[in-house]
């Protein structure tokens, strides 16, 4: 028949059923891909701060989507509106889906009211990464910091999020702490909520 | 001496490696593609970069594959293709491919993927219709095969993101490089 056969069917992504998120790929596949992300970004920058910012940007894109996905799938289209609610959503739900476990700890900063920390002994993205000496305090966890910022910001909690290595006594590898510093308006809003 | 064992089955192989949630993988890949589109602007350049990234991955990934799969030397390209489709794809992505459309010489064939973890949540906007979104995969195949002395050309012939009914990659063996010994470390 004339004209038949090449009629292409574009499947709308929203028409497809949402996956239940049980599918897995090998950790190596992810590690290889992540290493390419880091290597590519290294070619685009000339200092460490810039490299971390770019990894954070990449993570932010992931975080924004993860928030949308998980609010729909895990929370029945409800999203946390309180500070502690969203933090524990990240620490438990987001971490569990992305990294297969809840984060090792979620703590409030002792010196500043607006700071919170999520710590992980061995962050998944850092598992196969060793940072060369000349790159100083560079932490690939910047990608995860970006994910956290992506979730927070899109849920209405703007914050500055950074990743840091923190040495643990008696351990060769330091743990990674994701430091969250909320914008002033977030704390003011929380205070009004009481 | 370790007991002589044959190659593992694809399922056993996938079960034996550490795994992560496919959504983290999918979204991270998406973030990479978006970054490339922003930086490079030209879709053609993005295709090239994705292929290059895949190639880099392939050259490293093949070592892990050979170390963990217990696969012995393949007698011909046909066997190689089967191993990639049933074990290679499975070990890393948890899916298998079908090998079809062999040419008469047995030097080119197609991998058809029904499940493709790279493309969940993806839709190509009108401005990116020329984008070979999965180019990283073809790069991986090319890179991995080059490390086992096979030069190949890998192209996409069907892509569901462009409205086709499956993902199909055409792999063409262009040259089998004889192994040379002794290897030199310094070049």
TrEMBL record, chain A:
Superkingdom in the source lineage: Eukaryota
Principal subcellular localisation of the protein: endoplasmic reticulum
Subcellular location: Endoplasmic reticulum; Golgi apparatus, cis-Golgi network
UniProt xrefs under SUPFAM superfamilies: Ligand-binding domain in the NO signalling and Golgi transport
A biological process term (GO) from this entry: endoplasmic reticulum to Golgi vesicle-mediated transport
Keyword tags: Endoplasmic reticulum, ER-Golgi transport, Golgi apparatus, Transport
Record family assignment: Belongs to the TRAPP small subunits family. BET3 subfamily.
Record InterPro entries: NO_sig/Golgi_transp_ligand-bd (IPR024096), TRAPP-I_su5 (IPR016696), TRAPP_component (IPR007194)
Pfam families: TRAPP
Protein name: Trafficking protein particle complex subunit
Gene3D superfamilies: Trafficking protein particle complex subunit 3
Description of how the protein assembles with itself and partners: Part of the multisubunit TRAPP (transport protein particle) complex.
Cellular component terms per the entry's GO annotation: endoplasmic reticulum; TRAPPI protein complex; TRAPPII protein complex; TRAPPIII protein complex
UniProtKB/TrEMBL annotation, chain B:
Annotated GO biological process: Golgi vesicle transport
Gene3D superfamilies in alphabetical order: Trafficking protein particle complex subunit 3
Keyword Transport: yes
Localisation per UniProt entry: Endoplasmic reticulum; Golgi apparatus, cis-Golgi network
Keywords for this protein: Endoplasmic reticulum, ER-Golgi transport, Golgi apparatus, Transport
Any one annotated GO CC term: TRAPP complex
UniProt keyword annotation of Cytoplasm present: no
Functional description taken from the UniProt entry: May play a role in vesicular transport from endoplasmic reticulum to Golgi.
Self-association state and partner proteins as the record states: Homodimer.
Family: Belongs to the TRAPP small subunits family. BET3 subfamily.
Record protein name field: Trafficking protein particle complex subunit
Organism lineage: Eukaryota, Viridiplantae, Streptophyta, Embryophyta, Tracheophyta
Gene: LOC102707987
């Amino acid at each position: 028949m004339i004209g038949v056969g090449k009629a292409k069917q574009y499947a709308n992504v929203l028409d497809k059923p949402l996956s239940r998120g049980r599918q897995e790929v090998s950790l190596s596949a992810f590690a290889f891909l992540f290493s390419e992300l880091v290597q590519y970004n290294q070619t685009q920058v000339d200092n460490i701060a810039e490299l971390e910012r770019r990894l954070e940007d990449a993570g932010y894109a992931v975080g924004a989507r993860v928030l949308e996905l998980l609010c729909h799938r895990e929370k029945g289209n409800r999203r946390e509106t309180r500070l502690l609610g969203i933090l524990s959503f990240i620490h438990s739900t987001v971490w569990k889906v992305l990294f297969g476990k809840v984060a090792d700890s979620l703590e409030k900063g002792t010196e500043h009211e607006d700071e919170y920390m999520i710590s992980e002994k061995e962050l998944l993205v850092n598992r196969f990464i060793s940072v060369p000496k000349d790159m100083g305090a560079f932490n690939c966890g910047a990608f995860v910091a970006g994910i956290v910022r992506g979730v927070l910001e899109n849920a209405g909690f703007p914050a500055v999020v950074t990743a840091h290595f923190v040495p643990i006594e008696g351990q060769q590898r330091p743990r990674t702490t994701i430091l969250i510093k909320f914008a002033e308006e977030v704390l003011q809003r929380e205070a009004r909520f009481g | 001496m370790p007991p002589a064992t044959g190659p593992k089955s694809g399922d056993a192989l996938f079960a034996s490696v550490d795994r992560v949630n496919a959504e983290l993988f999918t979204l991270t890949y998406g973030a990479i593609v978006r970054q490339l589109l922003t930086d490079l602007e030209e879709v053609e350049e993005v295709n090239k970069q994705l292929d290059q990234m895949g190639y880099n991955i392939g050259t490293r990934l093949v070592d892990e594959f050979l170390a963990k799969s217990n696969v012995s030397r393949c007698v011909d390209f046909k066997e190689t293709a089967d191993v990639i489709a049933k074990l290679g794809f499975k070990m890393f992505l948890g899916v298998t491919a079908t090998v079809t459309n062999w040419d008469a010489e047995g030097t080119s064939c197609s991998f058809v993927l029904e499940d493709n973890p790279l493309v969940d949540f993806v839709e190509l906007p009108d401005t990116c219709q020329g984008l070979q979104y999965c180019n990283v995969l073809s790069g991986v195949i090319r890179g991995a095969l080059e490390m086992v002395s096979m030069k190949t050309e890998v192209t996409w012939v069907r892509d569901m993101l462009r409205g086709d009914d499956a993902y199909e990659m055409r792999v063409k063996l262009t040259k089998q490089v004889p192994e040379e010994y002794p290897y030199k470390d310094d070049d």
